[in-house]
Amino acid sequence: MKAAINLLVFVVVLALAVGALFYTQQRRLFFPAPSDYPQTVPGFRLVHSLTDDGLRLTAFYRPAAPGKKTILFFHGNGDNMLGAIEATRGPAAAGHGLMLVEYRGYGGNPGKPSEAGLYSDGEAAMRWLGQAGVPSREIVVVGNSIGSGPATEMARRHKVAALVLLSGLSDLPSVVRSQAAFIPRWLVRDRFDNAAKLAQVEAPVFLMHGASDTLVKPDNLDRLVRARRDATVARVAGVGHELAYTAGAQAILAKWIDALP
Asked: How many domains does the chain contain in total?
């Protein structure tokens, strides 16, 4: 009996220790900012936006051709500006403008990333575009993977032309539990509850997901579709979480944006 009690105590203490470690260190897992980042990219202008909490953030911008939309792009958690450029080659080739957001704590930017922080970074980018003469009605907000969080929040807050989620999260706790079922939902500090917000987005919504995605699994798409029944949906067969970087997905995205009024 004593051995069983000692084992139970050990298991409880271990679980508490693991839980405490996850709770305090999870943002290092969720936001693994790459150490390398570009300073100049041909065809883009390096610009700076100012957040409400006083951070000066870098971004890359190229204006839209006449009659084309401007894409406000939020990249995935382990990506950087070079990846964002690769993920937007299709719309760029079609003449659409690009504002590639770089988060706090990424790309040499000050600050530490968090859900609230990424929302503030998105607001700073929206404000910069407005000051540059780009009205919100001409902005298509696109979010890849965890970038679907700030993308959805910006589309909820502003009257934009459209919202596009690529490999989008229904919510972060669901993604975490799909990879580690032993972690309770309440232990995940950042929520990115996109499914709860989609009904509040006035603009058209396009949801694209790889049918073979093993990181943000396709059941995330199912929950997003249930939350927004009128969304345009594309399930791309044979593609995983690399969806945004594939030529096929970019062609679909560019065609859909071109068809917007």
From this structure: 1
